[in-house]
Amino acid sequence: xxxxxxxxxxxxxxxxxxxxxxxxxxxxxxxxxxxxxxxxxxxxxxxxxxxxxxxxxxxxxxxxxxxxxxxxxxxxxxxxxxxxxxxxxxxxxxxxxxxxxxxxxxxxxxxxxxxxxxxxxxxxxxxxxxxxxxxxxxxxxxxxxxxxxxxxxxxxxxxxxxxxxxxxxxxxxxxxxxxxxxxxxxxxxxxxxxxxxxxxxxxxxxxx
Length: 208
Prior knowledge:
- The protein is flat and about 70 Å long.
- With 208 residues, it is mainly alpha-helical.
- It has nine helices and no strands.
- The protein has one domain: Orthogonal Bundle (MetI-like fold), CATH 1.10.3720.
- Helix 1 packs across helix 4, helix 3 packs across helix 4 and helix 7 runs antiparallel to helix 9.
């Protein structure tokens, strides 16, 4: 559950964050207002509340006979939560792009999506690689909160085995928690190192 929620959440939250960031900078008032309300609302609510809403309240708003399993509800909650933070990270990258880049794209006669997809977004995303990876790492660690909706992630499975009389010993809790901590550290460290490698490869100004 930990890995699947994290990697699927990453795949979903990044494009959602890009769309929300572009929407927040849109010149269309309705789109901008909707994106601002969504981003600020989600960022002002703890993830526990989002997961609780997705697990308990969301089914109440669905048509009769329509239901999602707990995993999908948790995935929706985690992805929406991460997308709101991702949007602000990407918006920072968009604001860092010099105005001349936009003017140059306009002078070439490029449309909005061509300008963003070919010129602006590649530069903006390159600038905010550390922030994007930091959001991914935070999302990975936050997956442990799915315990509140009766889902068992890595930490939940470890705790469940504490009471197993077949192999539990006085040292089981300590060794189990150390193992869980090591797995989380290994995944976070791996993402951090890959971020540094990507920065060096793309020459974003990072110097060792």
